[in-house]
Design a protein that fits this description.
Blueprint (H helix, E strand, L loop, with lengths): L2 H15 L19 H19 L7 H10 L8 H7 L3 H8 L5 H12 L15 H11 L7 H7 L5 H22 L13 H16 L14
């Protein structure tokens, strides 16, 4: 598929859903490099550790298991500065301060897992990811807190680069429509909340854009539209 064809297909698909991105958006770069699966797996597992640290109690998941997971796989290297500060808190402190927002990391995790072969693909319609995705992602796709990045890479079936680029472009264009709606434009489907639903698009897009930006830190990922 050519860049022009991908752009035309993406715009047609989004229009059918009710998204109206700006016609001035550039063509996708089909030669864009994609991160190695091991890096995607490490970031995914780092977010898994972060989510577990905040969302689950010591009684349900022992702190020693989570710390072992982090240390064994050097997952702190794949956390941002703010995320590292969260896992430096006690479990109780982390839960109290961050449980209301930690669910957004599941949006990041869904898109990262998809790049490694997880189904279903991230969509544009749900406000936030539900258990139909999170349960198989956490309990079936991820190898577990006692496992390794290498184990996940071994079981993964990474997407072809062109498929990752196409999915990122889809979310990039949808994100443009979301941003326009947040500024008052009529550019998203009826019933689509520009902030709540738009936040899910933003987080899924963040993961996909990071995956096609090798050597760029998570916090430095270009999320402009």
């Amino acid at each position: 598929m050519t860049a022009d064809a991908l752009r035309a297909k993406t715009f047609a698909d989004l229009e059918a859903l009710g998204f109206r991105p700006a016609n001035s958006l550039p063509l996708p770069d089909l030669a864009q490099p994609v991160r190695p699966p091991a890096e995607v797996a490490a970031r995914l597992m780092a977010l898994d550790a972060l989510f577990t640290w905040v969302a689950f109690s010591e009684k349900s998941v022992a702190t020693a298991r989570v710390e072992g997971y982090l240390d064994r796989n050097r997952l702190r290297d794949w956390l941002t500065e703010d995320e590292t500060a969260i896992v430096a808190l006690s479990r109780g402190e982390a839960h109290e301060a961050h449980v209301d927002n930690i669910g957004w990391r599941l949006e990041n995790m869904w898109a990262l897992a998809w790049v490694l072969g997880f189904e279903p693909e991230p969509d544009l319609e749900a406000a936030q990811v539900g258990e139909a995705v999170t349960r198989p992602l956490i309990y079936e796709f991820l190898p577990g807190l006692d496992s390794t990045v290498e184990a996940l890479v071994t079981k993964a079936k990474p997407r072809a680069a062109v498929d990752v680029i196409a999915m990122e472009y889809r979310f990039y264009c949808a994100h443009n429509a979301v941003r326009s709606a947040q500024l008052g434009g009529d550019t998203v489907p009826a019933g689509f909340h520009p902030v709540l639903h738009g936040g899910a698009v933003h987080e899924r897009r963040h993961s996909l854009s990071w995956c096609i930006a090798p050597d760029v830190a998570w916090d430095d990922t270009d999320l402009s539209t």
